[in-house]
Amino acid sequence: MRWPAIPDPKGVQSLALLMQLEGTQWWSHVALKTAQFKQLSMLLTHAYRHSVMYREYLDTHNYQPGMQIDMNFRVNIQILKRRTLLERSHDIRSTQCPDGHGQVNEYTLSGSTGVAVSVFRTDLTGLFYLPGFSFSGDLVAFVPYIIKLTDRL
């Protein structure tokens, strides 16, 4: 066994992300909720500005880019259905990725239905698909983002 372990560049990124996530386990409930709402606000602003479909959807909830997101603003974000992805793939896809997200890669998935769909994710969001990351609960996909929504959101 080599010590210290020297991971490849993708491993370094994963470890850096894990360190940040590990530190949040000690945050207070208020600090964690505040950080989650700030992140959700940035995500919704990006989705509004760069995805035709999400702009239309957020308009129906009186959303304005950059607005304060808190417990008083509840968006009943629907889980993305395969049919919607097939029918509106061009409208869902973000027209611009944030700086630092790296290259956009296309993946084709068939799932249990056997109907192939193409999805896009960036190098950064691809880190969440590496071994060692698992998600539980309800996941909502914002191509190319994935966020976890809790009952308290």
Chain-wise SSE layout:
Blueprint: H1 9-24, H2 29-50, H3 52-59, H4 82-87, H5 89-92, E1 104-109, E2 117-122, H6 123-126, E3 139-142, E4 145-148
Antiparallel strand pairs: 1-2, 3-4
Explain what you see.
- The model is unreliable at 136-153 (pLDDT under 50).
- Helices cover 39% and strands 13% of the residues.
- A hairpin with a 2-residue loop joins β3 (139-142) and β4.
- The longest helix is centred in the first third of the chain and has 22 residues, at 29-50.
- The chain has one domain.
- It has a two-stranded antiparallel ribbon.
- α2 packs across α3.
- The protein is of the alpha+beta class and 153 residues long.
- The protein contains six helices and four strands.
Task: Write a concise synopsis of the structure shown.
The protein is an alpha+beta fold. It contains six helices and four strands; from the N terminus they run αααααββαββ. It has helices at residues 9-24, 29-50, 52-59, 82-87, 89-92, 123-126, and strands at residues 104-109, 117-122, 139-142, 145-148.
